[in-house]
Design goal:
Glutamine Phosphoribosylpyrophosphate, subunit 1, domain 1; hydrolase activity, acting on carbon-nitrogen (but not peptide) bonds, in linear amides; GATase_2_dom; alpha+beta; 251 residues; 7-stranded antiparallel beta sheet; EgtC_Actinobacteria
Length: 251
């Protein structure tokens, strides 16, 4: 369900990461190679990127399939950035959220995406939602599971958690509340990337002199791509990648 990608490194045109590679996110929207759940990612897409000297990212999101938006291809050709996060959304049940449900979600310097699904939604997440301040619940961009997961991560970030800790603890809490959920999370502030592999695929490519890519699946057949083990936290900069096992929460 869904595909996403983040990058930090030397400035690149968005299209060099999202469009040009033979199995880029654009192609993954209709022909993913490693997606375990769902087949067509046509219910929205988005990309967020950082401009030099501005810590707050810009976003471009739409409710339809990425292949049907010629403006995106034009934007991706000319916009360059040292960091981005982009996602395509799996075909889902009809809803009113539209563009608001398309990742990346954003607040301050942060961009976020959730690849997966919360089992038993929405009832299973009631206790976690109830623990959030009312203003944060009322500020949700959408009513989908990903928007609530983002609110839980953001609450931890605002409380001072490091990015890796925020996504890891949110995954463990959500997995405890809704066993069997798929919780691949992706978070960046334009300098670091934090991600979890929990129920779906996650890969990374570290290229000296270029930067680090973290993605649901490889966008080409470069043998340097490495798969992240399931139940793991990845934290990365443009030069370093660290993997930490995550333990299944006790009942």
């Amino acid at each position: 369900m869904c595909r996403h990608i983040a990058f930090v490194g030397r400035p690149e045109a968005l299209g060099e990461l999202l469009v040009r590679p033979p199995h880029a996110l654009l192609r993954q929207s209709w022909a993913p190679r490693r997606q375990r759940h769902g087949t067509v990612n046509a219910d929205g897409f988005g990309v967020g990127w950082y401009a030099e000297g501005d810590p707050v990212p810009a976003r471009y999101r739409r409710a339809g399939p990425v292949w049907a938006d010629p403006s995106f291809a034009d934007l991706a050709r000319v916009v360059r950035s040292e960091a981005l996060l982009a996602a395509v959304r799996d075909a889902t049940e009809a809803g009113a959220d539209g563009e608001a449900a398309a990742a990346p979600f954003a607040a301050g310097p942060w961009l976020f995406s959730h690849n997966g699904a919360v089992r038993g939604w929405p009832g299973s997440m009631g206790p976690l939602a109830a623990a959030l301040p009312a203003t944060e619940l009322l500020s949700l961009e959408a009513r989908c599971d990903s928007a609530l997961v983002w609110a839980l991560v953001l609450h931890r970030l605002r409380d001072g958690d490091e990015p890796g800790q925020a996504v890891a603890d949110t995954v463990l809490d959500a997995a405890r509340a809704a066993p069997g959920s798929r919780l691949n999370l992706l978070l960046t502030d334009g300098v670091t990337i934090a991600a979890t592999a929990w129920g779906d695929t996650l890969w990374y490519l570290a290229e000296p002199g270029r930067g680090t890519v973290v993605a649901s699946e490889p966008y080409d057949d470069d043998p340097r791509w490495c798969e992240v083990p399931d139940r793991a936290l990845l934290t990365a900069t443009r030069t370093d990648v660290l993997l930490t096992p995550l333990k299944e929460p006790s009942a």
